[in-house]
Specification:
The complex is a heterotrimer of chains A (325), B (518) and C (306).
Chain A: H1 5-16, H2 20-39, H3 46-71, H4 81-96, H5 103-128, H6 132-151, H7 161-168, E1 170-171, E2 174-175, H8 176-194, H9 196-206, H10 208-213, H11 218-244, H12 253-265, H13 277-296, H14 301-324
Antiparallel strand pairs in A: 1-2
Helix pairs in contact in A: 2-13, 3-11, 3-12, 3-13, 4-5, 4-6, 4-11, 4-12, 5-6, 5-11, 7-11, 8-9, 12-13, 12-14
Chain B: E1 2-13, E2 16-27, E3 31-35, H1 42-49, E4 57-62, E5 65-66, H2 72-77, E6 80-83, H3 95-99, H4 114-127, H5 143-155, E7 161-165, H6 173-188, E8 192-196, H7 200-206, E9 209-214, E10 217-223, H8 231-239, H9 251-261, E11 268-275, E12 279-286, E13 291-295, H10 302-309, E14 317-322, E15 325-326, H11 332-337, E16 340-343, H12 347-351, H13 358-368, H14 378-392, H15 408-420, E17 426-430, H16 438-453, E18 457-461, H17 465-471, E19 474-479, E20 482-487, H18 494-501, H19 504-514
Parallel strand pairs in B: 3-8, 3-9, 6-7, 7-8, 13-18, 13-19, 16-17, 17-18
Antiparallel strand pairs in B: 1-2, 1-4, 4-5, 9-10, 11-12, 11-14, 14-15, 19-20
Helix pairs in contact in B: 13-14, 13-15, 14-15
Chain C: H1 2-12, H2 19-44, H3 52-66, H4 71-99, H5 103-121, H6 131-138, E1 140-141, E2 145-146, H7 147-163, H8 166-176, H9 178-183, H10 188-214, H11 223-235, H12 247-266, H13 271-289, H14 291-298
Classes of the chains: A mainly alpha (325), B alpha/beta (518), C mainly alpha (306).
Chain lengths: 325, 518, 306
């Protein structure tokens, strides 16, 4: 990056941060960490901090696809990201079989599969007019079935050393995958605010007719956005495999709800046309921190579900309230 | 007797003074016009009278008594009703359901009394001579029919004061006439009407008096009992300036200019273009530097012609030539690359990103066409935006403002500037100055005329015949998807436009052919 | 289309037209149809309720934990269940009506909350439902009317009653155009709450049927109902934009979906494929529902925005 773009970039991100909304989110993260330290000393240690951030990355990648779909407007949402992630895990592991050499093929295969599923979503939504909610929810079932048939119930393979190093290793004490995520965040932000594709995306999300009259093929564009979201979810599965080492079924399930929550927290308007990925990323960190605290408190899944749901509920209601004012 | 009297009404919104000294009075059974530029405060005033807004100061008297209206339902108790532009109809419901919506009568056990509701709806529509069956669903109605149902809905509240805010915004003259018939019937029943409109010829036709607002205060009055019904008397009250002589050059001078430019062949040609049942064998030629008008009643296919040329509507047959080359206009991008730009009529739905900045709106088409560098050249874009803002005089001049904060007139200027920034060879205008005040409209057309003299060709559709007469070199009348008449520059007049829009001449021929049996 | 499905079902499912099978089908279809009615009400007012399934689960869990053998207990706990259903939907409705958050996310959040509470009460499926209770559900009245059908008849009677109410007409108005409803003096917030309340009644009936059929409390029992109820409503012609469609459509949608599910089940497809087929079938059914829109989409764009 030349020094010329750097100051402009900062101006962009600060302005598009949505101001106080994200300041609140950041403050909440800090508060949670302090709380965590109180109930479980060592929570605020560098090592643990990095652990939590690393865990956020996977959610963060899923939330990227979700953000793009929501920003594209038309009440866009992708409820199939969880199952596509799971499928990604299965496909990746079966193509990798524990060998580094297979990485390019596995990556390509996973991305292609995710892209294909996303395009089917997009086609149904854009060209047939099925509401995104229903289409992606139905596809989620379909993809779940696909995972089952593909693996026959027993996912095979494992992740190779390089991927495990990426998923688990650290450089200068910072998890590798976290570094990768930072690069992704910066890259995405540049694309959204300084690149043609991002500007077109915001327009399509804000008013699809105006965008169409301005020369954009809205239907095709939105279909591609879903395709991209699908491949990103697959990519997330690829990385998750690197973290876990061996594949399991249904690894993606917890990411769906949280990706939507992160997007909502991050200030991305659910009507489309505005928001930023940085906001969603911060939302991911917030949610992962919360989850970490719940684990530290040794709560059961039941309590975790209640807290998660309650938190999202409060945030969504409060956010709408603020908008009204 | 004065049913309404307003003195010194004041209203400020977040630092902007919408009204500072508004005075208005209304007598029983009269139609009083309320005119003024965008931002003059007339809509604010109307909303205060109808109870939607609470004034900061001033006195409002109804039927001789001072009142403080707290809500629009409170105003309804005083028998004041306001008719919106199709804002209060549920399109999936029938006419009668809409008319009684919110005030349904219930029998025992709070069950709905539908028979009574239907009877009431029929009565109300009959009172304004509307013949549509009340069981029809609103979504199947044309815009003027919807407007009449809105009026019916207001009438069902049995008001003594009716406020019509731009009731004719997208109606053609035939629809306006039916509206005026209804208004006259209301006068017979001693209903008083405040008629807000930008269309001065309507004001002169239907109103008994008028009041002009400027910058939040009453600027003057005209009583047509004492003064001639002449628009030229109204304009100075609105703009505060002496009437500018129509800057249109003589017709013959324009003809010379156009033939001079026409050496390179026509800018655009359509041959035999048809679109399912909406357009039939449309053929037209647009000469370079010409401003060609599309006239006729509303909904006859004018909008379809423009939308096809813009590449938005697809599936048409026939050929379209741009600068002599046969072009299949497959999508909007194609059209834009050919130098065709469409200024849409509904700025909210088709022209703007309301929650985005002025800059973002102005440059969107340019951005979508961008090729070359990976990053967008923001420096150059900032300058382009500043230039565009300057050219059309958008106020305030800040490119970072969110568009929804600007007034309607300024918003439309942005839409126009957005497309002019592409330096189009062919400009299409789809009723683009609807709802824009007189001053802004004159400025916009002056700008477009200048561009036409320098080679830009324009196809202009306006539902207001005045606009066509003032600005076009030729007018093509569209009727039921066909071009039925071409009116040349010297012959354009309101009378001709009306006659040919109704296709009277044609049906006259038919009757002559049919003969005695007919 | 309905006829086609009935025929296919008859071919595949053994003894389709026998009374035994008819009764079984009624028992299975009833909760789906009721859930479809509940979802339809919410969609009509312009929202969606993704917590429908979790709400049903929570009801089964609560009822299965509390019910004992005595008649008083049965009646009491049933009444409690109904009240709980109304409370859950009021919760959704209140916040939706007065704060106006996007219903998708809001109900997604509440569904997670209800799910968590269900897990808290009953981490593994179980509980106790007295035989007298679930026995009623499989009984037949007057020799030919299975109890589930009676429940449906009660629901239909309720629908007819609703249709005559002023508030119900206003529901359509709010769903069709909130702006128009406001301009007509309708209290939009209370109508939204009303819609959720009505939906709660149908949800309660659905939960009672589920309990009658499974006789257990299960925190996951309602999961399928969410997507199914939405699909059934959409198949039945309820439009997502709100204010369009009617209860008859929702009922038919539920029946159609039930028949489709039966077909998949009896076509001897391996369990791996079932989930897959279910999703595909729903998409195909939606395609049929969207047929007029499909035609419009495949033909070149006709709409001129006005």
């Amino acid at each position: 990056m030349s020094s010329n773009t750097r100051p402009r970039l900062r101006a962009v991100t600060l302005r598009s941060l949505g101001g106080s909304q994200l300041a609140i989110a950041l403050a909440a993260i800090i508060a949670l960490f302090v709380f965590g330290e109180i109930i479980s000393p060592g929570f605020l240690s560098f090592g643990h901090l990095m652990s939590v951030l690393r865990l956020s990355v996977f959610l963060g990648i899923v939330a990227l696809g979700q953000s793009l779909v929501v920003m594209a407007g038309g009440e866009g949402i992708d409820l199939s990201v969880g199952s596509v992630l799971s499928l990604g895990v299965c496909i990746s592991s079966s193509l990798l079989l524990g060998k580094d050499a297979n990485i390019p093929a596995a990556l390509l295969g996973t991305l292609a599969a995710g892209f294909g599923i996303g395009m089917v979503n997009g086609a149904g939504i854009s060209y047939i007019g099925i509401p995104p909610l229903i289409m992606t929810l139905a596809m989620a079932s379909v993809v779940e079935g696909l995972s089952l048939t593909y693996t026959g119930g027993y996912p095979k393979g494992s992740s190779p050393p390089f991927l495990e190093a990426l998923g688990n290793g650290r450089t200068v004490g910072i998890p590798n995958i976290l570094l990768l995520w930072v690069v992704i965040i910066v890259g995405v932000t540049i694309i959204l605010f300084r690149q043609r594709w991002g500007a077109v995306l915001f327009g399509v999300g804000a008013n699809s007719v105006t965008a169409e009259l301005s020369g954009i093929n809205v239907k095709r564009f939105r279909m591609f956005v879903y395709g991209v979201s699908g491949s990103i979810a697959g990519l997330a599965g690829f990385f998750v495999l690197g973290y876990t080492g061996t594949p399991y079924l249904n690894l993606g399930a917890p990411y769906l709800m949280t990706s939507i929550a992160a997007v909502a927290i991050g200030g991305v308007s659910l009507a489309g046309g505005s928001g930023s990925y940085l906001g969603a990323a911060i939302g991911c960190v917030l949610l992962t921190t919360l989850s970490s605290i719940l684990v530290a408190l040794r709560t059961t899944e039941a309590v975790r579900q209640i807290v998660y749901g309650g938190l999202v509920f409060v945030i969504v209601v409060a956010y709408t309230r603020r908008r009204r004012d | 007797m004065k049913v309404l009297e307003a003195k010194g009404i004041r209203k400020t919104f977040a630092g902007v003074r919408a009204l500072c000294d508004a005075n208005f009075s209304l007598l029983a059974g009269e139609v009083c016009g309320l005119v003024g530029a965008n931002g003059s405060g007339k809509t604010t005033f109307a909303r205060i009278v109808s109870g939607l807004l609470i004034p900061d100061g001033g006195e409002l008297r109804l039927y001789g008594q001072p009142v403080n209206l707290r809500s629009h339902l409170h105003a309804e108790l005083y028998r004041i009703a306001m008719v919106h532009q199709n804002l209060s109809l549920v399109s999936e419901m029938t006419i009668w359901e809409n008319i009684v919506l919110g005030r349904e009568e219930t029998g025992p056990l709070t069950f709905l009394n539908n028979r009574k509701a239907i009877a009431q709806a029929e009565m109300v529509l009959d009172a304004i001579s509307v013949k549509i069956p009340v069981r029809e669903r609103v979504k199947n109605l044309s815009p003027d029919e919807k407007q009449l149902v809105e009026i019916g809905k207001a009438l069902a509240k049995d008001p003594r004061i009716l406020i019509l805010d731009e009731p004719t915004a997208s109606l053609d003259f035939q629809q306006v006439e039916s509206l005026f018939r209804a208004v006259r019937k209301l006068k017979e029943r001693s209903v008083s009407i405040i008629f807000i409109s930008h269309r001065l010829w309507e004001i002169t036709e239907i109103c008994d008096r008028l009041v002009a607002f400027r910058n939040g205060e009453t600027m003057g009055q005209l009583d047509f009992a004492n003064q001639p019904r002449d628009e030229r008397l109204i304009i100075p009250l609105i703009t505060g300036q002496e009437l500018r002589e129509r800057a249109r050059k003589g017709a013959s001078l324009r003809e010379q200019q156009i033939s001079h430019q026409g050496a390179g062949g026509p800018a655009l040609e359509m041959r035999g273009v048809s679109l399912d049942d909406r357009l039939c064998e449309v053929s037209l030629t647009l000469r370079r530097g010409e401003i060609l008008g599309l006239g006729g009643l509303q909904g006859q296919g004018q909008e379809e012609i423009l939308m096809i040329l813009a590449g938005y509507l697809k599936g048409h047959t026939g050929e379209i030539f741009v600068n002599g080359k046969l072009i299949p206009l497959r999508n909007t991008r194609h059209a834009i690359r050919q130098g065709i730009a469409l200024i849409p009529g509904d700025r909210h739905k088709e022209g703007l990103f309301l929650e985005h900045t002025v800059l973002s709106n102005l440059l969107y088409p340019k951005i979508s066409l961008h090729r070359g560098s990976f990053l967008l050249p923001m420096g150059r874009y900032q300058k382009l935006a500043a230039d565009a803002i300057h050219t059309v005089s958008v106020e305030p001049r800040n490119p970072r403002l969110i568009v929804s904060q600007l007034s309607g007139g300024n918003q439309q200027k942005i839409v126009v500037a957005k497309w002019l920034a592409l330096s189009p060879g062919i400009l299409l205008m789809n009723d683009a100055t609807k709802g824009v005040d007189v001053a802004t409209r004159q400025n916009l057309y002056a700008m477009i005329s200048l561009l036409a003299e320098n080679g830009m060709s324009v196809i202009l559709y306006a539902s207001d015949n005045e606009e066509l007469i003032d600005n076009c070199d030729r007018v093509l009348i569209v009727f039921e998807g066909r071009i039925v008449k071409e009116i040349g520059a010297e012959e354009i007049s309101d009378e001709k436009l009306v006659i040919f829009s109704l296709n009277i001449e044609h049906s006259g021929e038919k009757a002559a052919v049919a003969g005695p049996q007919g | 289309m309905l006829i086609l499905l009935v025929v296919v079902n008859a071919i595949i499912q053994p003894e389709f037209f026998s009374f035994q099978v008819f009764r079984m089908n009624c028992m299975t279809f009833a909760p789906l149809i009721l859930a479809s009615l509940a979802q339809a009400t919410v969609i009509l007012v312009g929202a969606v309720d993704l917590s429908l399934g979790a709400g049903i689960s929570l009801l089964t869990v609560v009822m299965a934990s509390l019910m004992k053998d005595s008649a008083a207990s049965i009646i009491g706990v049933t009444a409690l269940g109904v009240c709980l259903a109304l409370f859950l939907s009021l919760f959704n409705g209140f916040f939706f009506g007065y704060f106006g958050p996007p219903p998708l996310i809001m109900t997604f959040a509440t569904s997670t909350m209800w799910f968590g509470i269900s897990l808290l009460i009953m981490p593994t499926p179980g509980g106790y439902i007295p035989a007298t209770y679930y026995g009623i559900y499989s009984k037949t009245v007057a020799g030919f009317l299975p109890v589930p059908v009676i429940v449906l008849l009660v629901a239909i009677a309720f629908c007819l009653l609703l249709g005559r109410l002023k508030a119900f007409r206003h529901l359509y108005a709010v769903g069709g155009s909130e702006r128009a409803a406001l301009a007509s003096g309708i209290n939009v917030a209370s109508i939204k709450i009303f819609a959720f309340l009505v939906s709660g009644v149908f949800t309660a009936l659905a939960a009672l049927c589920v309990v009658g059929q499974t006789a257990t409390g299960d925190a996951r029992s309602g999961q399928g109902f969410t997507l199914n109820s939405v699909a059934a409503a959409v198949i039945g012609g309820i439009s997502f934009s709100g204010g369009k469609g009617n209860y008859a459509g929702a009922i038919f949608g539920g029946i159609i979906l039930g028949l489709l599910t039966n077909i998949i089940y009896f076509a001897n497809i391996t369990s791996f494929y079932q989930e897959f087929m279910k999703g595909v079938i729903i998409i195909v059914a939606l395609l049929f529902g969207a047929l007029p829109r499909l035609r419009r989409a495949l033909l070149p764009s006709r709409e001129v925005v006005r």
